[in-house]
């Protein structure tokens, strides 16, 4: 046989049905010992390796899951979601599934932005990472696919979600700044409708309140349309040019924006951390290589992808039953950008 052997070849050689071969391959359902032995012998003789479609015959599954995020979340400048995808990819390999990646525009239009694997119904479930148009979520739900959201939550809707503990990370950051003598602490963020950014702002504001400090509105910028480096630069300009009474420290909603803040400070001769301490969030690789190294909140991004896959596969296997919100742990990584000496 010169061509790659198929499940049909196995069935013909063993003189059994396709579904019987699939049951043997998947080790599911009842197959008599004699028939199983015969099929396994033919598989070995032919050197047959089952594809995802063959594995799915018995359960009428595709053997694929979809992974979706917006175009801007999957670039070299936004490595956060890349790491989540890698965590999902490594985990899916343990379960004899394949993962199909699709990036989509921010504004979803079913007529021209629907991934092919949805149109062809070539997946058994879908993971969405990051903030997407809610119309996309509703569209996937209408198709009946199990769905898991990572780093995004839709208010008043019940979907399994995987979130990092945003509030706790913000709380740790502000408490650290307070512990080294800062009480004039500002906040920079963007896309405040994103639940993760909103939780980080709440953690910032409520931690200050608990410490008996009311944050100053002039020290808060949360109306940037996005959370990229250029948005951090623009936000820093807005905040630091307002008046002479400036914060001595900033908690920034993510590392990309924090890098933009640091760039603004360098171009305007503001010393970090002597004149302005800075803490970011996400612990992307660039946070370690910038000078000074950025203090940040570490998020186990690969773990989020791993848990997302496990949650989705459970939904596929058991059906859409219990909806869980899972929060992964975070850790403050103290580096050079916030300083460590008590201030007077």
Please give the structural blueprint.
Elements: H1 7-14, H2 18-26, H3 33-46, H4 52-56, E1 64-70, H5 79-92, E2 98-104, H6 110-113, H7 116-119, E3 126-129, H8 134-142, E4 147-150, E5 161-164, H9 166-179, E6 185-190, H10 195-210, E7 220-224, H11 229-240, E8 249-252, H12 255-267, E9 277-279, H13 286-289, E10 296-299, H14 301-318, E11 325-328, E12 330-333
Parallel strand pairs: 1-2, 1-3, 3-4, 4-5, 5-11, 6-7, 6-8, 8-9
Antiparallel strand pairs: 10-12
Can you walk me through this structure?
The protein folds into three domains: about 5-55, 434 Repressor (Amino-terminal Domain); about 65-165 and about 300-325, 3-Layer(aba) Sandwich (Rossmann fold); about 165-300, Rossmann fold (3-Layer(aba) Sandwich), CATH 3.40.50. Helix content is about 40%, strand content about 15%. Helix 1 (about 5-15) crosses helix 2, helix 1 (about 5-15) crosses helix 3 (about 35-45) and helix 11 packs across helix 12 (about 255-265). The radius of gyration is 25 Å and the shape is elongated. The strands form three sheets. A six-stranded parallel β-sheet has the order 2-1-3-4-5-11, with helices on both faces. It has a four-stranded parallel β-sheet with strand order 7-6-8-9, with helices on both faces. It has a two-stranded antiparallel sheet with strand order 10-12. The longest helix has 18 residues, at about 300-320. By secondary structure, the protein is an alpha/beta fold. The N and C termini lie far apart (about 80 Å). Helix 12 (about 255-265) links the parallel strand 8 (about 250) and strand 9 (about 275-280). The chain is built from 14 helices and twelve strands.
């Amino acid at each position: 046989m010169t061509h790659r052997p198929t499940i049909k070849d196995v069935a013909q050689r063993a003189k059994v049905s396709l579904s019987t071969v699939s049951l043997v391959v998947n080790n599911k359902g009842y197959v008599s010992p004699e028939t199983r032995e015969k099929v396994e012998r033919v598989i070995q003789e032919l050197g047959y390796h089952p594809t995802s479609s063959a594995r799915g015959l018995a359960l009428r599954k595709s053997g694929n899951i979809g992974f979706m995020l917006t175009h801007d979340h999957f670039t070299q400048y936004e490595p956060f979601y890349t790491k989540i995808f890698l965590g999902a990819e490594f985990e899916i390999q343990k379960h004899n599934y394949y993962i199909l990646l699709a990036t989509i525009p921010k504004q979803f239009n079913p007529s021209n932005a629907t991934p092919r694997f949805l149109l062809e119904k070539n997946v058994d479930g879908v993971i969405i990472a990051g903030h997407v148009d809610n119309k996309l979520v509703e569209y996937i739900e209408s198709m009946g696919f199990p769905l898991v959201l990572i780093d995004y939550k839709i208010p008043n809707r019940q979907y399994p979600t995987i979130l990092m503990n945003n509030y706790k990370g913000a709380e740790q950051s502000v408490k650290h700044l307070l512990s080294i003598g800062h009480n004039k602490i500002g906040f920079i963020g963007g896309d405040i409708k994103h639940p993760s950014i909103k939780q980080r702002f709440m953690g910032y504001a409520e931690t200050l309140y608990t410490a008996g400090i009311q944050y100053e509105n002039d020290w808060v910028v949360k109306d940037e349309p996005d959370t990229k480096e250029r948005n951090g630069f623009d936000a820093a300009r807005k905040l630091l040019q307002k008046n002479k009474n400036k914060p001595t420290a900033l908690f920034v909603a993510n590392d990309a924006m924090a890098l933009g803040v640091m760039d603004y400070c360098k171009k305007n001769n503001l010393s970090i951390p002597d004149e302005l301490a800075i803490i970011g969030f996400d612990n992307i690789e660039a946070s370690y290589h910038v000078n000074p190294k950025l203090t940040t909140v570490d998020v186990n991004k690969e773990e989020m992808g791993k848990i997302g896959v496990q949650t989705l596969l459970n939904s596929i296997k058991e059906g859409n039953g219990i909806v869980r919100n899972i929060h992964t742990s975070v850790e403050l990584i103290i580096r050079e950008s916030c300083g460590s000496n008590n201030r007077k």
